[in-house]
Amino acid sequence: MAALELRHLRYLLAVAEHGNFTRAAEELHISQPTLSQQIKQMERTLGVQLLDRTGRTVRLTDAGAVYTDHARRALRDLAAAERAVHDVQDLSRGHLHLAVTPTFTAYLIGPLTAELHTRHPGVSLTLTEMPQDRIEAALLADDLDLGIAFAGTHLPGITATPLFTESLSLVAGAPRAQAMPDPLPARALKDEQLALLSGDFATRGHIDAYFAHHQVAPRITIEANSIQALTEIVQRTPLATVLPDAITHDHRHLTPIPLDPPLPTRTVTLLHRTDAYQSAATHAFTDLTHDLIRTRGYAPPL
């Protein structure tokens, strides 16, 4: 066993992923004969056949499938160990991989990153917008440290910590809002022209469920995949939209219009892999997130 090195594990995983020695060798930047020789050496060392080479594609044997499962975990744990070794507890340096569902970039990420830079300027941040299912998959693959999304049914191995309750309202420019009753009955939405987020946003699904529950069908004139676009459209046209209340607080040209009954609230959560190594940067970001939410007065989670 001592003859095996980390490169052997990476070689085997590459062949298993591609099902082909040539493509795996190209990815690894080694020759195909060298890769084949290294895998055979690995099999001789272990005393078992790991790959079935008889078909059109190379496949794992039963023993190979078991071994690669442990190999992936071993490499993941070693990567976590490297981060732990280089993790500076005084946070003079460090790095954080964070993903959020898209609406949070409009009101939460700016204050969070500003606070992170103020408290820990040596900590760098990689920020990605993605749907919630991809956030959870990336956390499980150890490609992310943290995610910000919504409470609900989560993948096994994901821990969700409630942060605050998000409320949504109908939103219009000031002149249009002044002409609407306060609150606006849900049935009156059938007479409104709306600009809404496109269907790939979780928020749009939340809005559509409200419409369906109350049996109203507004005229959806514009769909956009950008909150900034919606805020510009609404403040310059008679159209209305639906946005989190926290966004309208930062836009003085937008006016929230309460609905009767109101749109259901949602619980915002901080996500991480249950058994993941928690770096000093991760702990620091978690703490400042809770501090900032209290400071800004967001409603506590239900």
TrEMBL record:
What InterPro entries does the record tag this protein with?
HTH-type_LysR_regulators, LysR_HTH_N, LysR_subst-bd, WH-like_DNA-bd_sf, WH_DNA-bd_sf
Highest taxon of the lineage:
Bacteria
Q: Which GO terms describe its cellular component?
A: cytosol
Swiss-Prot/TrEMBL keywords:
DNA-binding, Transcription, Transcription regulation
**Matches recorded under Gene3D superfamilies:** 3.40.190.290, Winged helix-like DNA-binding domain superfamily/Winged helix DNA-binding domain
According to its UniProt record, which protein family does this protein belong to?
A: Belongs to the LysR transcriptional regulatory family.
Mind telling me what this protein is named?
Transcriptional regulator
Organism for this UniProt entry: Streptomyces noursei (Streptomyces albulus)
Give the source lineage, highest ranks first: Bacteria, Bacillati, Actinomycetota, Actinomycetes, Kitasatosporales
